[in-house]
Specification:
Elements lengths: L13 H14 L5 E5 L12 E2 L9 E2 L3 E4 L9 E9 L12 E5 L11 E4 L3 E3 L4 E4 L9 E2 L10 E3 L7 H9 L4 E5 L3 E7 L3 E2 L14 E2 L1 H12 L3 E8 L3 H13 L3 E5 L10 H8 E5 L4 E2 L5 E6 L12 E7 L3 H19 L11 E4 L11 E8 L5 E3 L9 H5 L2 E5 L10 E6 H5 L1
Parallel strand pairs: 5-6, 13-16, 13-17, 14-15, 17-21, 19-23
Antiparallel strand pairs: 1-12, 2-11, 3-10, 4-6, 4-7, 5-9, 8-9, 18-20, 20-21, 22-26, 23-24, 23-25, 25-26
Helix pairs in contact: 1-6, 3-6, 4-5
Length: 427
C-alpha cells in the first residue's frame, strides 16, 4: 500500500499546486518497463540511460564529394594528380600513394594515406586519368573524424528522456534496435452531468432543452493519446452519488490514474468530492487559477483487479472542471506535467513563456492567476479573443497560446506580458 498523500492547504497558487502534484508523482512514479523496437518507440519514455557501443562516425569519412589527397602533394596549388581510385559511400578504398588522388563521395571512408579532401568544385577532371587540384588544402579539410559526434561508451540518452524523432534517430545511429521504456500509463476517464449528450445521439439531430454535447470527452481523450496513455473510457456517468462511487471503484481496479470532468464544484448535484472522499481521499481541492479553480486531486482505493499485485494500493485521481476551456487549460497546466512526471520524465516545472507586447487592454484585475487566450498578430504582438468565458471553446482554436497574467495585475496596451504558446503546452 502506498503512503497517504499530504493534504494541501486551501486555494493554492498555480506554482504551489504544480509543485504539490509533481512531488506526489515523484514519490510514486510508474513502476514497470518493457523493451520495444526503436522504430516503435516514438513518444515513449526511457527507463534506463543508453550508451553508444560504437564511435560515430565509425571511421574518418568525407563531408563532401571531391578528391581525397595528401595535403603535401597539393601545397603549391594547381597540382596535377593521377586518379588511382573511386570510392563511393559504403566502400573501402585502397591505400593512397604519393602523387595520387582518389575520387570520393560524401560519407565514404578516407583511404589510408590521404589526409584531406578537396571539393569537386575546386578540381578539374582531365581526359588522361588525372585531375587538376586548384586548391592547397589544409590537413583534415572536409574530413569528419571517427568519434567526433559520439565516442564509444558515451551516454547518448538519459533515463527519463521522452523520445522524439531526434532521439530515435540518435539511438539508431549507434545501432540500438531496441530500447527499454517505461510501461504505458493506464488512465480511466469518465464524465458527469445529466445534461451531457454525445454527438450523433440527439434524437433527430436536435439537442433536448438544457442538453450540451460532451466536447470534453473528445478533447481529453486526444490529449491523453498524445501522451501515449492507455485509456479506459467509462463514458457519461449519471449525476448521482451512487453511480459516481460505483464508477470510481471500477476505474480504480486496473488503472494508475482516474480523470473526471464535471461535478467538482460544491453544488447539490456535484458528487465527485463526496464520492472520492468515500472511496479514498482528496488532498488538493482549489487553485487560484482562472479558468479552472475547482481542480481536485487525491487517491481512490483499489480493491483487487486483473493484475492486483502490480496495482495494489491506490489509483491517483484528478477531477477537472466541466467547463470546456477550464478543463482544457487545467489539463495543460497541471495534468500533463503530472503524467509526464509519473512516466519518469524530468523536465522544467513550468512551461517556457516569452515576453511579448500586448496589443490589448485588460483593465480589471482578478485575485486569481488568469490564463487568457491570445494569438500573435501581424505586428508580432498579442491580441485577445473577445470572449474569455470558460465555456467558449472557440477561443482555444483561434488562439496561439495563453497570456499568463499574475493575480491582481492589470494590462495596458503596450505592456510586456508573459505568453505561453500552445506548442509549449502540448508538444
Amino acid at each position: 500500500m502506498s503512503q497517504n498523500l499530504p493534504v494541501a492547504p486551501p486555494m493554492l497558487s498555480v506554482r504551489e499546486a504544480l509543485d504539490f502534484l509533481l512531488d506526489a508523482a515523484s514519490a510514486r512514479p510508474l513502476a514497470g518497463s518493457e523493451l520495444v523496437a526503436t522504430l516503435c518507440a516514438n513518444g515513449r519514455v526511457l527507463s534506463d540511460a543508453q550508451a553508444s557501443t560504437i564511435d560515430v562516425p565509425s571511421a574518418d569519412n568525407t563531408q563532401m564529394d571531391g578528391y581525397a589527397v595528401r595535403s603535401t602533394d597539393c601545397a603549391g596549388g594547381n597540382t596535377v594528380l593521377t586518379v588511382s581510385d573511386r570510392i563511393p559511400a559504403g566502400h573501402v578504398g585502397q591505400r593512397l600513394d604519393a602523387g595520387c588522388a582518389a575520387r570520393i563521395f560524401t560519407g565514404a571512408m578516407i583511404p589510408i594515406g590521404a589526409d584531406a579532401v578537396v571539393m569537386q568544385e575546386q578540381c578539374a577532371s582531365n581526359d588522361d586519368g588525372t585531375v587538376t587540384v586548384n586548391h592547397a588544402p589544409k590537413e583534415g579539410e572536409w574530413i569528419r573524424r571517427a568519434g567526433e559526434d559520439i565516442s564509444a561508451g558515451a551516454v547518448i540518452l538519459a533515463a527519463g528522456t521522452r523520445l522524439r524523432s531526434q532521439e530515435l534517430g540518435l539511438a539508431a545511429s549507434t545501432g540500438l534496435a531496441m530500447l527499454p521504456v517505461v510501461r504505458k500509463l493506464r488512465v480511466a476517464v469518465f464524465f458527469t452531468g445529466d445534461e451531457l449528450t454525445m454527438p450523433g445521439e440527439a434524437p433527430g439531430g436536435r439537442l433536448a432543452p438544457g442538453a450540451v454535447y460532451n466536447s470534453n470527452r473528445f478533447t481529453l481523450r486526444a490529449l491523453l493519446e498524445n501522451l501515449g496513455c492507455i485509456i479506459t473510457d467509462f463514458g457519461i456517468v449519471p449525476d448521482t452519488l451512487a453511480a459516481t462511487r460505483a464508477t470510481l471503484q471500477r476505474a480504480a481496479r486496473d488503472n494508475d490514474l482516474i480523470i473526471t470532468s464535471g461535478g467538482v464544484s460544491v453544488g447539490e448535484e456535484d458528487h465527485i468530492k463526496p464520492a472520492v472522499e468515500a472511496e479514498g481521499r482528496l488532498t488538493m481541492w482549489q487553485i487560484a487559477v482562472k479558468p479552472g479553480k475547482p481542480l481536485a486531486f487525491g487517491e481512490v482505493r483499489r480493491d483487487g483487479g486483473k493484475d492486483a499485485d502490480a496495482r495494489e494500493g491506490e489509483a491517483f485521481f484528478l477531477g477537472l472542471p466541466g467547463n470546456p476551456v477550464s478543463s482544457f487549460i487545467t489539463f495543460l497546466l497541471f495534468v500533463r506535467p503530472f503524467i509526464l512526471r509519473l512516466q519518469g520524465v524530468v523536465e522544467q516545472k513550468a512551461p517556457r513563456g516569452f515576453a511579448m507586447r500586448a496589443d490589448f487592454d485588460w483593465p480589471k484585475a482578478d485575485r486569481r492567476n488568469e490564463f487568457l487566450r491570445a494569438r500573435i498578430n501581424d505586428a508580432g504582438a498579442l491580441e485577445l479573443f473577445p470572449n474569455q468565458g470558460s465555456g467558449v471553446l472557440t477561443s482555444t482554436v483561434w488562439g496561439d497560446g495563453l497570456v499568463d497574467n499574475p493575480p491582481g495585475n492589470r494590462i495596458a496596451r503596450g505592456d510586456s506580458v508573459r505568453f505561453i504558446p500552445f506548442s509549449e503546452l502540448m508538444h
